[in-house]
Amino acid sequence: MSNIPEKNQPNLDKVIGYAKQVLSNDCTGHGFDHVNRVAKLSQTIIDEDHLTVDAFVVQVAAYLHDTVDDKVVTDVAQAQREVNACLLTAGASAFQIDHIFTIIDNLSFSKELLQGAEVDTLEGIIVRDADRLDALGAIGIMRTSYFGGSHQHPLHLPDLAPKDFTDHADYRKGTTVINHFYEKLFLLPGKMHTAYARKEAMRRMAFMEAFLKEFYAEWDV
Ligand code: ADP
Ligand code: NI
């Protein structure tokens, strides 16, 4: 747990309330349920790997990580101002606010993939691994289909090969739901930095491979 004195710890309930309000209408797999799982998975990583961190920064970053992302909000700068106001109201210190923004501004796979963005504090690494775990397994399959449906992506086009994305707009457009497994999801286990997340990612990926085997067999019925 955090070593920071009680009076300097942000009021997590205020942050959770804000995340709930911003993410409640999301229909792309980035709703409040997602950030709630990321917060829980982050805590599991801390416990399983016996990590010493500012647990409040981890929790706040987990709840807020998708509230300043272009895939969820239309005006990123405005969203950043709102998050800043929320953190001030919640009583976060300037140091914590700075740290939280460093994490949530650089967390996304697309930013790492396309802009070389790096998260280098242990708190950031934990939230990023947790976010990536929630992209895998049964939940990952459902979220990917949900996202693809909301963006009018085809389910599967056997003749369209997965792409190697180098452009953000292109990456957001995507190709097909099934291709997203290869374009992003199967790259994630190799990008985990904590021991628990690496092991859990491999377990979830094995489930997805079994799912794909069944999917292809049924597709070619
Ligand atoms: P990030 O912000 O980390 O780049 P993404 O938006 O790529 O995150 O991914 C978050 C989740 O949204 C993915 O794990 C996946 O479930 C879904 N998703 C994102 N892009 C696509 C896509 N092109 N096709 C299908 N699902 C997608
Ligand atoms: Ni996320």
UniProtKB/TrEMBL annotation:
InterPro entries: HD/PDEase_dom, HD_domain. Pfam families: HD (PF01966). Residues 27-145 form the HD/PDEase domain. PANTHER family: HD_PDEASE DOMAIN-CONTAINING PROTEIN, SUPERFAMILY HYDROLASE, PUTATIVE (AFU_ORTHOLOGUE AFUA_1G03035)-RELATED. This is HD/PDEase domain-containing protein.
